[in-house]
């Protein structure tokens, strides 16, 4: 795990690093701490990170623009902030976790569980921030029918057929999407309520037929789970 | 004052005091200059006498006679005759003298003035049905030439009714008088309590003048006087009318803060003076005075209403009612409509004053709420999550890694919070306390940022008053908007005196890696609001980038020093 900490309070940054290393030392490959936005952006431009711990009140600026840019990235975003009143807003835009200040080691254990994919985010994203040309679009999650893997990225397929590329991998997206989304295949996340019926093709290939008529392949191991969920 | 009687009859009916018996005003009489005892006789032939209206007696001071025939229905007793006249007189009924007022004289020396108004009883034996002769012998040597219409009326009718008429009319006047005196007292006290409220003083004086006018008006009916004092009362009534007429627009001028109002008052006084100098009787003068006062009051209230002054339209309605009454009644305004209409006007005026003081109270409450809001804002800044939770997170870290530092930070934090709580409610504090508060904050922030923050304020006078947390807020802004890291950061506060102005210059180094941010947000809003609230006199606050520093200049008037 490669971690970037963006925090203008040096003591707080130090605490975050110390506790993370204490809890998940052998999983952590690298921790970088930046005190301001410029150096954080510089670091992100030249190094891959898996998770950014972000203080939402960087040098007095409203961090939400910054947060939007952050959640559009390939990495997970964890907000660490004193402004716990903004937690829900942060979750809705797609952060994996929101750690209120002051924090102790127990709280960070939960964050680490979410990072390992053991747990989904406490509140699902309501919109997905997608990097467009020179801007960031906010796509309502309600418009997404399914998500298809495209290399290390993901393609959001909207109900109207539009496709948008998201920098995050399927796993990372699943961690912030609502429970209605299910991993049905190595390369597919599917919104359960889009499924009209399940079919079995020759050679025991399973597919889920969507309202739009599209057929999405369903992994053999995941067929049972999906069927159980569909039958309620 | 003609036709006052009609008014009193109306008032008497209005006052609803018992049964109104038949009383009949006499309209036409026969008049003859000269003196002859036989002219009292019922059968005397007066066909060659002048026929005149009662209220148009001959222009003379010497003795003259008045005769008229009175037809009585059966059962007219007890019968009375009321005579209202600025003259001495003898009253004859069917040749019998039934009463007199003073002593009629053939010369000035021989005349004794008597009561101006009197009711004479007709003996029951003479009050049978049929036609009777009423004759009056009159002289009026002590009547000044300026008093023209000196016979105000004669009425024949039920004796108790006649006796009660004037008293009944006065009853209402006295009720009004009491009301006006009370209002005058009330506003006088209000003004005494708060001397800045000039409109209250003017209203008090206005109400007193109206009460005095009522007293002068009703004096004749309540107390009465000998006819030679009539001019004195007329002068008092006219003078008081002028005072009332002048005060009324003045109250509005002051109440609605009309610009150049004293110039307007001067013009009004001039117009009232001209009205008083006009030819014509006292009624005409009074009428003209009202024609000066009411339209100008209407203009002033309309002006104020157009500018949305609180309560202006109430005053406008009151004045308009008065003016309509003046239009409708003309010469009879003083006798019939003045007091009720003025009551309405006063009600409007008082209601508008009430509205105005309600508005003032609201403004005061808003100002108080604003002060409370500022205090809350200052405290909230330090209880708000960003400051407190970051400090606590740092303290947690030190507790686990370096407890001794943790304790020192908590001490610094406690110092700062205690000082803030002490000063947050004060409008002004000595600069020394402000600087102590700043240094406590710099201590806390120094621990948090691992930077040494210095505040150099050698030239600053510690006794100078300043609203709490002004410099503190400016420093907070600097620390929030700059990524200060490593080593020592030095803030400088300098004070310069220039006459009646103190200039504070706060220099904070710029260490923002992005473009210099402009902290003209939240923090400076607080500073401006505090200055606006607590500093009487002109102040300015300006910030700009100068080289590698952010410089804030605060100019304050020199205020008396505060001891720390």
Explain this structure to me?
The complex is a heterodimer of chains A (232) and B (564). With 232 residues, chain A is α/β, with parallel strands linked by helices. Chain A has 2 domains: 2-122, Rossmann fold (3-Layer(aba) Sandwich), CATH 3.40.50; 127-231, OB fold (Dihydrolipoamide Acetyltransferase, E2P), CATH 2.40.50. Chain A contains 7 helices and 15 strands. Chain A has helices at 10-24, 37-46, 64-71, 87-92, 105-115, 170-176, 220-230, and strands at residues 2-6, 30-34, 51-55, 76-81, 97-100, 127-131, 136-140, 144-150, 153-158, 163-166, 181-185, 188-191, 195-201, 205-210, 215-218. In chain A, helix 1 crosses helix 5. The longest helix of chain A has 15 residues, at 10-24. Chain B is an alpha+beta fold. Chain B contains 13 helices and 17 strands. In chain B, a hairpin with a 2-residue loop joins strand 16 and strand 17. In chain B, helix 5 runs antiparallel to helix 6 and helix 8 crosses helix 13. Mean pLDDT of chain B is 86; it is low at 1-20 and 513-517. Chains A and B meet through helix 1 and helix 2 of A and helix 9 and helix 11 of B.
Task: Write a compact overview of the structure shown.
With 232 residues, chain A is an alpha/beta fold.
If strands are numbered along the chain, what order do they take across the biggest sheet of chain A?
2-1-3-4-5
| Tally of helical segments of chain A | 7
| Multimerization state | heterodimer
- Class inferred from helices and paired strands of chain A: alpha/beta
- Radius of gyration of chain A, whole Å: 19 Å
- Give the CATH H-level superfamily of the largest domain in chain A: Response regulator
Number of domains of chain A: 2
Output mean pLDDT of chain A: 90
Biggest β-sheet description of chain B: 6 strands, antiparallel
Distance between the termini of chain A: 37 Å
Beta-strand residue percentage of chain B: 15-25%
Q: What is the radius of gyration of chain B?
A: 41 Å
Largest sheet of chain A: 5 strands, parallel
CATH architecture of the largest domain in chain A: 3-Layer(aba) Sandwich
Low-confidence stretches of chain B: 1-20, 513-517
Termini gap of chain B? 73 Å
User: What is the average per-residue confidence, as pLDDT of chain B, rounded to a whole number?
Assistant: 86
Strand content of chain A: 25-35%
